[in-house]
Design a protein that fits this description.
With about 180 residues, this protein is an alpha+beta fold. The chain has helices spanning about 20-35, 55, 75-95, 160-180, and strands spanning about 10-20, 40, 45, 60-70, 105-110, 115-120, 130, 135-145, 145-150. The protein has one domain (about 10-180). It is about 30% helix and about 30% strand.
């Protein structure tokens, strides 16, 4: 029998996408108000790898990844997804002038040295149920010096720009973990 140990803290991530700069700004402010300062922010990536969101979110979507200074317990992922869903609903009510029903999409997740985990409300064969309608998926894993995809990895997460940003996040987490282990 293995010894039970608490999990190491993980790097909280939030992926925002919209075609409206105001929506991205609003989502970023909500996240900072609840989770604290942003440690790292990616460039905005053009999100054109799928038409899946066109009917509910429109065209010309841009996506940005944020990593937060405060590390989190991975058990908080379901809470993060539920809060993100609430923020999406709140923004949709605020932005009644938007021509689409879902002007903002928020995907919480976390990063360890070995993997990127994203939360979802959609069940699939590769996702594990957490609670309250929230599932978790290992979207990418780190092996042999780089990020590797899975058969279910969304195409945008397979791009070099995302991997470069996640490398920065991984190094940030490693530095934070060293300080934490050495009592700093």
């Amino acid at each position: 029998m293995g010894d039970l140990k608490p999990p190491r803290p993980v790097l909280r991530l939030l992926v925002l996408f919209s075609r409206h700069e105001a929506a991205l700004d609003w989502g970023r402010r909500q996240a900072e108000d609840h989770w604290g300062p942003i440690a790292l922010a990616s460039d905005q990536f053009l999100f054109n790898q799928t038409d899946y969101y066109r009917a509910t979110m429109g065209d010309d979507l841009r996506k940005q990844l944020l990593a937060f200074e405060r590390l989190m317990d991975p058990a908080e992922l379901a809470d993060s997804k539920l809060l993100g869903n609430q923020w999406e609903d709140d923004y949709a009510r605020l932005a009644r002038t938007a021509s689409e029903p879902r002007p903002l999409n928020l995907d919480p997740g976390y990063l360890t040295e070995a993997k990127l985990v994203l939360a979802s409300t959609k069940d699939r064969d590769h996702r594990l149920y957490l609670r309250d309608g929230v599932f978790a998926e290992v979207t990418l894993h780190y092996r042999g010096g780089g990020w590797k995809t899975r058969p279910w990895t969304y195409p945008d997460y397979a791009t070099a720009g995302y991997h470069l940003f996640l490398d920065r996040c991984r190094e940030y987490l490693r530095a934070r973990s060293r300080v934490h282990r050495h009592g700093g």
